[in-house]
Amino acid sequence: MQVVDLAFETQLLIACSGLVFLWALALGVLKYRQILASPAAQAHVYVDIAHRAALMYAFALLLLALFAELSTWPTAVDVVAALVPAAFFVAAIASYQWHGMRRDTDNQLRHPQRGVRGFMAALVIGEIGGSAVLFAGFLKAWLG
């Protein structure tokens, strides 16, 4: 069966969701390995955060896929609005995984590296903005 009946942006977001979900499952393996190797039977806090965030972001991407499918905006608008939060989701998970594997901090915002505040501002604007555009496209279709 082909998914040609779904809009391109929907297919793109479903593919992103699947990749992030598989990443989450792999992070679960990393978390389990760290738990086994730890005298306290705990994974590093950022491996735990990365695992949970990836699971949640995978499903958030499916919600965005639904909004994109039902949106009345042009494809180009929906694609950009979809890829911005997706890119920030991936960047956040990667950051959490990086810190968890390096075991270099238990709070990356306590003493942030240069550029983190700017990145966080962009993340907030990008995730909320892109999601809001897709949701507004859905509302426009629903409410006419």
Q: What does this protein look like?
A:
The chain is mostly helical. The protein has one domain (8-143). It has four helices and no strands. Helix 2 (45-70) runs antiparallel to helix 3 and helix 3 packs antiparallel against helix 4 (116-143). The longest helix is centred in the first third of the chain and has 30 residues, at 8-37. The mean pLDDT is 95.
Series of secondary-structure elements, N-terminal to C-terminal: HHHH
- Total DSSP E strands: 0
Structural class: mainly alpha
Q: In angstroms, what separates the terminal alpha carbons?
A: 32 Å
Shape: elongated
Number of helices: 4
Largest sheet: none
- Mean pLDDT across all amino acids: 95
Please give the share of residues in helix: over 70%
Proportion in β-strands: under 5%
Q: What are the low-pLDDT stretches, counting only 5+ consecutive residues below 50?
A: none
- Structural domain tally: 1
The Cα radius of gyration reads 17 Å
Nutshell version of this structure?
With 144 residues, this protein is an all-alpha fold. It contains four helices and no strands. The protein has one domain.
